[in-house]
Amino acid sequence: MPHENQGLRLYGIKACDTMKKARTWLDQQGLDYHFHDYKSAGIDLAHLQAWCEEHGWQTLLNRAGTTFRKLDDEQKNGLDQAKAIELMLAQPSMIKRPVLDIGDRTLVGFKPDLYAAALAGNN
């Protein structure tokens, strides 16, 4: 069972609209969290590997974003987990946002109902 005040960690990019929605929601719930900005703090291989193991690289790699769409076909073809992680390490804006670490697991993307269910009793 997760401890109260387990230290929620929200991973993403400050200027992203979805990130702003997630941060506003967490603030409105009175939940404390640490914001990890990929632009200033980067991301390491261990986090990406763990998130891919938990959710699958297809969920974690944001293929709808402009950064991914600007890649040439050679970079997009034959994607597998190793290639996806390599892309996300090089350009963290390709990681689907946000990733919220709630202690015993992570949530990828922002849906208020999923956040509410996962965080019930944390505030």
Explain the layout of strands and helices.
Blueprint: E1 8-12, H1 17-28, E2 33-37, H2 38-41, H3 45-55, H4 57-60, H5 66-69, H6 73-76, H7 81-90, E3 99-101, E4 106-108, H8 112-119
Parallel strand pairs: 1-2
Antiparallel strand pairs: 1-3, 3-4
Helix pairs in contact: 3-7
Order of strands, widest sheet: 2-1-3-4
Percent helix among the residues? 40-55%
The class by helix and strand makeup works out as: alpha+beta
Low-confidence stretches: 1-5
Structure description:
By secondary structure, the chain is of the alpha+beta class. Helices cover 46% and strands 13% of the residues. The chain contains eight helices and four strands. The protein has a four-stranded mixed β-sheet, with helices on both faces. α3 crosses α7. The chain is globular, with a radius of gyration of 15 Å. 21% of the residues are buried. Residues 1-5 have low confidence and may be disordered.
Main features:
alpha+beta, 13% strand, 4-stranded mixed beta sheet, single chain, 123 residues, disordered N terminus
Short description:
The chain is α+β, with helices and mostly antiparallel strands. Helix content is 46%, strand content 13%.
